[in-house]
Write a structure and sequence with these properties.
This protein has 136 residues and is of the alpha/beta class. It is built from four helices and four strands; from the N terminus they run E-H-E-H-E-H-E-H. The termini are far apart.
């Protein structure tokens, strides 16, 4: 078997928004999309990590910018989407884990995880889809 190499497709002229892009899977997605030719907007809460990631990407000739934003703040997300313009691709990679045994899970931890992993992901996808379809 021969595995495909990244990128195995081209995204020239496309704009991508990647959340959770300051590290981990989100950063990996942002780099892969940029390597495929997309202009990538990296989004996360930490401005310093985002700025460093974008600087490294740009040093490699990749097209990227960053936006520090808390994706649980729907008004802030709407403002970012209005600022960055049309998005063709959304990689909803922001996430949170607070590990504990099920019987020890605290309500505040459960709420924090659900706020990012479910609610914020849903409403971000909704906002991007509304702009993609002209419904916004």
């Amino acid at each position: 078997m021969t595995l495909p190499r990244t990128p195995s497709f081209r995204l020239d002229g496309k704009r991508a928004l990647v959340t959770g892009a300051s590290r981990g899977i989100g950063l990996g997605c942002a780099v892969a999309l940029a390597e495929a030719g997309a202009h990538v907007v990296l989004a996360a809460r930490g401005a310093d990590a985002l700025a460093a990631a974008v600087a490294e990407m740009q040093a490699l000739g990749l097209s990227a910018e960053w936006q520090a934003v808390d994706i649980t703040d729907t008004a802030a997300i709407s403002a970012v989407l209005d600022q960055i313009g049309p998005v063709d691709i959304l990689c909803n990679s922001a996430g949170l884990a607070r590990h504990s045994p099920a019987l020890a899970t605290q309500e505040a931890d459960f709420d924090a995880v659900m706020a990012i992993n479910v609610k914020a992901a849903y409403f971000l996808a909704q906002a991007v889809a509304a702009r993609m379809t002209g419904a916004a």
